[in-house]
């Protein structure tokens, strides 16, 4: 899965954000917008389910490569069908390669490595730390995204949630689970770096950028999997695995990119941030219903803390309470 919301909302100037918030907060989403947001959350939640299914039999790096490679092919077809042109400027190509590394190759691989040990539900919850890491990194490397009181408090809650989940596993001697969660957490840091680095693509066609980074990550990963894994050993005869990788690449990556930007244009970045809250919910439900996964007490506590942190960072609930208080 990918979390590009921060790369569009966090890039804006304070004035742009105020204008966007004033416009969007006063406009409720249409039924179509809600359906698209829920669909996107279900798709990205499903990516954790598919990743877990594939990790039961396939090696993680090869799976990550197939995901970006097949997704890139699908987006190239979409580019051709919509007659978009791909720029070949040197600076753009270099930036795309870096973006492909930190936004696809590294995080996709780390999430799948983690999912060799942990279920889709837990992986999705740890992955919800992405907006928090993006905020932390943006504070130090941008001039218009600095900490505020509620954001600092949200970060504290987020880290407390991860510590609660991972710390309990370490104390219980479940080192494999703790390291798996650490791998997924590493993916969220990479996404955070991508969120800040991706600021340079503002003004570019997002579908072109998505196609470029997936293509670059495919090229970067090919020699790695040939050296570290045996990609030719995977079993393509299994219908479930073939269907899973196709769904992960085409639906959860290529189509999700296109749907994301469609929702962004229709509902706006503020309303689209609801996806951050819905993805773990859909992933947990799918994991419980289809894979029989369960969550421990410490994991549920961690989920609550991370959710509270995201709520504080999002700020909508806080602004709603203050607005009601001021009207009294």
Unreliable stretches covering 5 or more consecutive residues:
3-27
Structural class: mainly alpha
CA radius of gyration is 19 Å
Q: Let me know the largest β-sheet.
A: none
The rounded distance between the terminal residues' Cα atoms is: 43 Å
Provide the number of structural domains.
1
Q: Name the assembly state.
A: single chain
| Overall spatial form | globular
> If helices are DSSP runs of H or I spanning 4 or more residues, what is the number of helices?
15
Q: Would you list the SSEs in sequence order as H and E?
A: HHHHHHHHHHHHHHH
State the helicity in percent bands: over 70%
Percent of residues in beta strands? under 5%
Mean pLDDT: 82
Overall strand count? 0
Describe this structure in words.
- It contains 15 helices and no strands.
- The protein is mostly helical and 328 residues long.
- It has one domain (30-138, 176-296).
- Helix 4 (60-81) packs across helix 11 (239-267), helix 6 (120-127) runs antiparallel to helix 13 (274-291) and helix 8 packs antiparallel against helix 14 (297-314).
- The model is unreliable at 3-27 (pLDDT under 50).
Topology readout:
Blueprint lengths: L5 H4 L4 H12 L5 H25 L4 H22 L8 H25 L5 H8 L2 H12 L7 H23 L3 H23 L8 H23 L10 H29 L1 H4 L1 H18 L5 H18 L1 H12 L1
């Amino acid at each position: 899965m990918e979390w590009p919301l921060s790369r569009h909302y966090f890039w804006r100037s304070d004035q742009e954000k105020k204008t966007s918030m004033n416009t969007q907060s006063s406009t409720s989403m249409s039924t179509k917008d809600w359906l698209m947001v829920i669909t996107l959350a279900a798709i990205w939640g499903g990516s954790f389910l598919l990743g877990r299914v594939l990790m039961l039999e396939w090696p993680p790096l090869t799976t990550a490569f197939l995901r970006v490679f097949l997704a890139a092919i699908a987006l190239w077809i979409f580019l051709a069908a919509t007659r978009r042109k791909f720029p070949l400027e040197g600076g753009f190509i270099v930036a795309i390669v870096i973006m492909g590394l930190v936004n696809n190759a590294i995080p996709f691989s780390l999430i799948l490595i983690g999912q060799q040990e942990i279920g889709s539900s837990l992986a999705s919850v740890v992955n919800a730390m992405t907006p928090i890491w993006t905020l932390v990194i943006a504070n130090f490397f941008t001039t218009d995204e600095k900490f505020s009181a509620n954001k600092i408090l949200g970060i504290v809650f987020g880290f407390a949630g991860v510590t609660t989940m991972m710390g309990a596993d370490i104390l219980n001697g479940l080192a494999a689970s703790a390291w798996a969660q650490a791998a997924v957490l590493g993916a969220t840091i990479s996404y955070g770096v991508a969120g800040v680095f991706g600021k340079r693509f503002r003004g570019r066609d997002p579908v072109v950028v998505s196609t470029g980074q997936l293509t670059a990550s495919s090229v970067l990963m090919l020699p790695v999997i040939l050296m570290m894994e045996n990609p030719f050993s995977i079993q393509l005869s299994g219908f479930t695995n073939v269907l899973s990788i196709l769904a992960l690449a085409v639906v959860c990556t290529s189509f999700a990119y296109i749907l994301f930007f469609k929702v962004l244009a229709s509902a706006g970045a503020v309303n689209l941030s609801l996806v951050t809250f819905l993805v773990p919910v859909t992933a947990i439900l799918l994991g419980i219903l289809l894979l029989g996964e369960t969550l421990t007490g410490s994991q549920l506590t961690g989920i609550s803390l991370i959710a509270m942190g995201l709520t504080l960072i999002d700020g909508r609930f806080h602004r709603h309470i203050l607005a009601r208080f001021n009207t009294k």
